[in-house]
Amino acid sequence: MSAFFFRDDDRFVATELTRGPWSAGHQHAGPPAALLARAIEAVPAAHEMQVARITFDIVRPIPIEPLRTSARVVRGGRSTELLEGTLANDHEELMRASAWRIRTGHVELDHDAPAARAPRPPAPAESDDTPFFDFGWETGYHTAMDARLAGGSFHAPGPATVWLRMRQPLVGDEEPSPLTRVLVAADSGNGVSWTLALSRFLFVNVDLSVHLHRLPHGEWVCLDAATSPQSTGIGLADTALWDERGPIGRSLQTLLIDRRRA
After folding, report:
1. Could you tell me where the beta strands, DSSP code E, fall in the chain?
2. Which domain holds residue 175?
3. Is 1 helix (H, G, I), strand (E, B) or coil?
4. What count of Cα atoms within 13 Å lies in the side-chain half-sphere of residue 243?
5. What are 68's strand-pairing partners?
6. What is the CA radius of gyration of the chain?
7. Please, what is the end-to-end C-alpha distance for the chain in angstroms?
8. 0.90 cut: is pTM over it?
9. What is the tens place of the pLDDT at every residue in 64-116?
10. d(Cα 200, Cα 145) in Å, to the nearest integer?
């Protein structure tokens, strides 16, 4: 079975399915972010808890090679926990994460939750089955994801609404967790809502911050994304996250904007 990573003792061997758009030798940040979140989720909790916010700092481009993860509790508590984790190869740290876990349980509310700020996107079955961006490589993240376009276009700049689904597991034959399904997809917000031509510009995110008020149901995650580049060389991608039942949260990416060098 294909997967983004395969386990090798205490390392995770990245496959070509992790390959991203910027270099044939480097990963799209979605799969390694999900791998690091997997380590954070594995840290034991004394109560039922959910990761409600997780932020990744991409310290260096992540090569397609074996990686190690580590995670620990920074501050424990009955209701909230702050955790941190790192992703590294044999030489250096590549990505770090911090996450808040919040206890879950039934809370009697005085009123129903307010309606979503945006209309519900068409369901995956009602959206166009569209090949993901061709990064220029035969195999990569773009061939590892199913995509259904619910708004906007992959071929024209501007906001876009896209359903994404993993075609294979994150690690070996493990069933991906709901959190890792979100994170494999969420790092694509700046890509699906591109406003600058990939052939002439870089719009690389240096971080990814995902806020979730609930975890998704099912395999599909929807990105309702918009990117705002500035002539200062800094941009922001803002993405509303949905599953087929409704909104689940939001993600933000800080972008480095630059022209490609010849």
Report:
1. 5-8, 11-14, 49-58, 68-75, 80-88, 93-103, 128-129, 145-151, 160-166, 201-205, 207-212, 221-229, 234-243, 246-259
2. 5-104+122-259
3. coil
4. 16
5. 88
6. 18
7. 39
8. yes
9. 999 999 999 999 888 999 999 999 999 999 999 999 999 988 888 877 676 67
10. 25
